[in-house]
Amino acid sequence: MSIGTPLPLPGPVPRLGVLGSGEGSNFGVLLEAIDAGTLPAQIALVLSDNPGARILERAASRGIPHAWIDPGAHPNRFSLEAQQAVSGQFRAAGCDLIICAGFMRRLKDPVLTDFAGRIVNIHPSLLPAFPGRDAWKQAYEAAVTETGCTVHLIDAGIDTGPILAQTRVPVYMGDSADDIRHRIQAAEHQLFPRAIRDLLATLPQAG
Ligand code: GRF
Question: What is the pLDDT confidence band of residue 207, given thresholds at 50, 70 and 90?
């Protein structure tokens, strides 16, 4: 019996390393997209600076390797030791891309150099407007009629890296800051898996 023309072997599945500090709802939609086959990737490792972060529980419930990284003594900074641990653990896990899914600390070297052009963040505004913390609150206080969310690559600045994709979100009269936050998050959940899929398609074959 002829075996016919061999099918091309599929390439290796890209491995994602995820960083998050809190709820992990964006991580949840990435898992759903992977399960649905619309995001051709696998989650290799989830790391958090917050030992009580729900994102770690979500990883645990799926049997995904996960760990807490001691951020160091400063309440907002991420120590050099922590940066080294993040880079070392993601490299050891063979990660092709780092995904910041609600990670509240700034990445620096060696992470930035080791994963240059391969660190993705989601931010709740139409960058370059409202960088930094609580962007939906900034939008509320500025009384804008439109805000949104941005997926971008991380560089050494605060929310300054190259923009990959954005979604506009309306702000209605009478909205509270929380209404804006919820509307932005709904848009994030649509945008994030799509933007990561599109980025993966442009990267050299993983593996
Ligand atoms: C998102 O709104 C994201 O834009 C910001 O942090 C939030 C994380 O939410 N960077 P979650 O942890 O994914 O639910």
Answer: very low
